[in-house]
Write a structure and sequence with these properties.
This protein has a 5-stranded mixed sheet with strand order 5-7-6-14-15, covered by helices on one side. A 4-stranded mixed sheet has the order 1-3-4-2, with helices on one face. The chain has 8 helices and 15 strands. It is of the alpha/beta class and about 375 residues long. The protein is about 25% helix and about 35% strand.
Amino acid sequence: MKSILFIIAITSLALVSSTTQSEQMVRNVILDERGSTPPLSQLYACAHELEGQEVDKTKYDECLGRILSYKYFEKGSVEVKLVSANTVDLRFVLESRELILDKLEFKLSELDQASITKWLRQDSRNLEVGVPYTFKRETATFYNLQQFFLSNGRNAVWSSKLNLDYSSGRASMIYDFVEGPPGPKFDSLPPNSPDCAYRIAILDYTGIDDLVPIPLLDAATKVKAFSCYDPQLIKADESRLHSSGIFQNVHYITKRERKDWKLKIEGTGNPFVVRSLNVKNYGQATPLSHELLSQLPLQPGQTYKSSIANESLALLRHLVESKDSRTAVVEKVVVSQPRTLDIEFAVLKIGENEVFINGSKSQ
């Protein structure tokens, strides 16, 4: 096997300043990753630690050398850009071998696999078999998967298993999923959305009081953020909310925002009493004791308030999160009787992302 030549090219490109380099401060550290660089934050920790420090060529040269010593990179350099008399930006240019993605798998039904594959192909920035793996493509794929599930009214979390083989020049990615209860459908961004003359660029809920359960509002309306602007659909939504029982009074305010529209909902909610509150686990979630559940701010018998529900979600998320897993907590609200609610907090949990490099699992 031919040995790989690792070239360390350390360059410092800076504008001449009357201020000496030792007196200048690092404002930002930018990672300019080229090729199939490993998505491991610990590899680049020393670079980010330079932010806010005095510029020290010895330190950033040492950091670059440390990064390149992992042997996943073919070459690298540091560029220094003068931002002001006293501040600079450091750009770490890191180049790795391009690894062709030869496997992209989604552990779902055949129908879902076909639907997701078709969805992802609409955006050329996503991961794609036959195209080199990059962290930018992985990030784009994450957000497009998020839009896929939300646009279909599905709550899900997922983890990934990434294999990078710098010897063979190949890469693979496998996604695994845990789904929770269904939810309302949300509109997606282009290219997976219909063409519109105008869109709802901003959907503003700040005019709604604390008595309104947001999950009920989302379920009752068809107009969402990024929906096509349709005055008739907005009017139908407003009428639907008037008769929903959620509000005492409600109205929509539309405002042109450059080429798109802002939609604000203002209204006073009807009071609802919480009849029951449960936590349901999906995937690897661990059941919580009655003692822990009693710590949640929202409890049966109380008047429902969105702020208290959000506090409960935050506390529950804190109780169930762990470093070795990916977790989401979703609120489900059902009107059980007039003015009473059944609340379910769904906890979705799956294992953490895994990265294997040249056959070994990275920690």
